Amino acid sequence: MDIKKRLYRYSDLKLEHEQLKERIDSLREQLTSIRSQTFDDVVACSGSSDKIGDMISTLSNLETLYIRKSNELMKEIIFIERLINQLESRDRILMRKKYIECKTWETVCVEMNYSYRGIQKIHSKILQSLRNSA
After folding, report:
1. Which residues form a coiled coil (predicted)?
2. Radius of gyration of the chain from its Cα atoms, rounded to whole angstroms
3. Per-domain residue ranges for the chain?
């Protein structure tokens, strides 16, 4: 995948990773709740344990799926962070403002005190440098 496309995906990756973390936490709460109910239900009625066991298995499988996806997302986030970290200070600032903070080019220009054309030249050189190093 092109470096620029990977950079643009950063904010979506972070958002999806956060959502998965919340889902994993929610699943763990459900599993804990179901498991604690299971001990009470087993004593009262043995017929429902298969349904509960199936539910626990399904939730555990879903948790595993979410964890795998979360790990994939983190690998890509780390890759992007490492790309940016290898740059010079001014270039890191520019790339973080644009791709991590999701600022418009106009905002980046104002905050860094560059013209639009100047920022575009710097950005093009950075992308070329990243492509050559990847």
Report:
1. 10-37
2. 23
3. 1-85, 88-134
